[in-house]
Amino acid sequence: MIIRRAYLFDPAWLYLRTTAVTMATVLGAYGWALFVEHEAGLRVDSVVQAVVVASALGRVQRAFDRTDRLVACAVLPCAAAGGTELSTLIQRHPTAGDAVFVVGMAGAIWIRRFGTRATRAGTLVVLPLVAVLVVPPGIAPTGGGHEPTGWAAVTALVAVVWGTALTWTAQRTRFVPTPPPAWVVRPAPAPARKGLPAATRMALQMAAALTAAFVVGRTVWPDHWAWVVLTAFLVCSGALSRGDVLVKGAWRTVGAAAGTLVAGAVSGSFGPRSDTAVVVIFAVLAVATWLRELSYAFWAACVTAVLSLLYDWFGQSPGDLLDTRLAGIAVGAVIGLAASWLVLPIRTAAVARARTAAALAGLGELLEADWHDERAVRRARTRFAHRVDQLAVSTAPLRMLAALPLPRRLSARWHPDDTALRATAALRRCAAPADALAAAVTSASDGLADTPDLAGRRSEVAAHALAVRRAIGRRPQPPATPQQPPEPRTPRPPDPAAQAALDALTALNTRLDTLTHLYPPPPTPTPTH
């Protein structure tokens, strides 16, 4: 049944193909790390760090363009070197190392406020920090100079270059799709608002969660504190809002517990330093990468199983630590959820409102674009589609929570607001008329741009979209200006392209009526004399 569901979620095997590219990146980095370990006399923790960094890099680099790849060549080696030094610092001076870890994680999230490229650079910084938590205690070296630091930087650079070559080849041969260009993913301009930006709030939430996780982990499980910290990080990382962290945190916790139980059941089957265990680890890692898009539960279960098998490879039986790991996972999940809900929380409805406004801004760009410029029309249509997809991502937790089979008494008391879900559905229904409008404009741009009837209808729909955006932002509508009656014109036979554009505009206006009902405009201020 799982295989059938996997086929349904990936009918064109797109995610499986991207998984193949990711695992090729991982295996290449693994081979290089083994070579360096043997030739330079390093310890096996360098190999573990290379695999952790390459597995995450293979996933995030799918969205990289040429500039992002150049940034990765500079950022990731420095971050890998810093991660190696941090691992030594944590073992020698735990308090100072824990503080540096918290500051590094929070800083990598905080820089997201500076745009898409800064977000991706911050993600690269996080990868070696996660590797610090993965290596079992007592494995990483505490001395021996700074030679491992230099080799960590070189290995990270090799992983970037190797992964870039594989990804570029796969995209050029259309084995995997190319990422959207920067002009598509660029955030829509938004009015300045009071309060801390979302990135700053998320950074403070992560800092609070990691600080509490370190304190609890060091106090309760001094030899296995990393499980608490790692779970708290996984619950908080990438969460857009309270609803998002609740759903993802639940899936990650359930999956991690399941993965721990499965790994505990097969503990001791391979033995320390077993080559078979290494093969199984890579196989499970590939399944985790593939099924990540299906559910976070599968991803968390597989990754936790990989970590348990890694501990078994080092001679630490997962079965002997089963209770400790389950308790650490549960405590870390509670800490992560509490930090996201209590420390400057980000409301799911607020995120949905902002992304609804961004999608409407994309629709406004399509309506207000220069219809003589076919490229500008296509770009505006692509930006609108991307922002609708981003809105659907932000409202996914609401759909899942609304589908929960709650008891009758609880469901009678708890009525979740479905405004965001209905707005998402309305904007998704705008996709077909937006495509039809763009197709009509690009097929006869010279004629449609100067058609008086079409220009008037276009201005009307654009004003409607702007009015809904102002209502979403709780901004009053500007005073109405008197309209001049249209000049009488001699009717002309409708052009097929013009008629298709008029029909598309009418359909868009109907969808906007739904949004107007969901977001009624605030009272118009009374003009003063």
From TrEMBL:
Subcellular compartments: Membrane
Domain Integral membrane bound transporter, residue spans: 214-338
Coiled-coil residue windows: none
Superkingdom, natural source: Bacteria
Compositional bias per record (Pro residues), positions renumbered to this chain: 476-496
Ranges annotated as spanning the membrane: 12-34, 96-114, 121-139, 151-170, 202-219, 225-243, 250-270, 276-291, 296-314, 326-346
Keywords recorded for this protein, A-Z: Membrane, Transmembrane, Transmembrane helix
Membrane topology note: Multi-pass membrane protein
Annotated segments matching region Disordered: 470-498
Pfam families: FUSC_2
InterPro entries: Memb_transporter_dom (IPR049453)
Protein name: FUSC family protein
Source organism: Streptomyces mangrovi
